Each structure stands twice: as structure tokens, then as C-alpha cells.
Amino acid sequence: MRHGKKFNHLSRTASHRNAMLSNMASSLILEKRITTTVAKAKALRKYVEPLLTKAKTDDTNSRRVVFSYLQNKESVSELFNEVAEKIATRPGGYTRILKTGSRLGDNAEMCIIELVDYNELMVKEESAAKSKTRRSRRGGSKKSDEAPAAETKASKAEAKAADAVVEEAEVVEEVKEVEDVAEETPVAEVTAEETPEKEEEASEDTEEKKEDDK
User: Whole domain around residue 49: which residue ranges?
Assistant: First the structure.
């Protein structure tokens, strides 16, 4: 029967339970992850997350309140100096529970409870997932539509520039060809002008030879 049982007592008295959660919270802050049972991890999450939120305001009152729960100077200084900077932009959900299976002997559910911002692998995956943009067929955001449009405009501009370079090269080649032809044409005209004179001289020579023969 669980009449009026609002939280898990963990089969301990109030003083024993509070001391255990205080030690576990200090170990979590110092080590950034600990292995325990799922029931203890869920109780620890409710115990330590309000302390992490309190650490975001670094003043004397906050330090005294946190120290009254943890009773450990090292964990308090670690919490306010390093951990508070990591969780400054996170609005909540500072811990993560990863189940690891059952324990041999009593078959209790085991897990790893850790601080979210200190798991580098998962932080990298989250940042990579956020950087990827998803396009929907029903009409996505304007930013996602503008990026491909800008890329297509840039590619079109590059293609036009390349076509213009090719056209300029073709025009230069055509001009060179015309100049070459223009240089060659006077020689042809001179030869054409010289040929009638040679023909006239040849005809005169033949006529003289005919008169001599007579």
C-alpha cells in the first residue's frame, strides 16, 4: 500500500536518504557521471537539478544554500566555477539517464546518470543535427528556400561569365582570321595584275617569232 507516498523513500530513513543523495550529488558534480540504480538516479535527478539552477546566480546566498545540501566545499566550488558556465544557456534538463541493463544477483535495473553538457559525443551529434536543414513539401521556411535560390543565382552568374569569356575568345580568333586574310589578299591582287602583263608579253613574243619565220 502506498498511502500518501509522494516520492520514493528508497527503503531508508529521511536522514539516511538525504545523506546518500547529498553524497551522490557531490560525486556527480565532481566526476560528471556515476553508475547507480534507476530508482536512485531518478531520485538524484530531482535532488540535484534545482541545485544546478541555483548555481547560475553566483552570489553568497546561493553558495550557502547549495552548501547546506551538499556539505562539500570541493563540489560547491566546482559547481559554481566550471559547471555553471557550461549550463548557463541551458534552461533545464541538466542530467541524462542511460540504462545499462540489470545487475547480477538482485536483478536491479542499472543506469548511468551524467551531466548533459559534458558528454562530448552527444553534444557533437546534436550540433550536427541542428546544422542540417530539413525541407518540407508543404512549404518550408523562407530561409531554407532562399539559400538554394542564392546558390542557383550564383551558378547562373558563373555560367554567364564563362560563356562571355568563350565568346570573347571566339571573336578574337575571328578577328585574327580576318586580319590574316586581309594581309594575304594584296599579294593575290598583285599576282592577278601581273598575269595579264605576262600574257601580253608572251603574245608579243609569239607574234615576233611568226614574222621572223615568214
Answer: 14-120
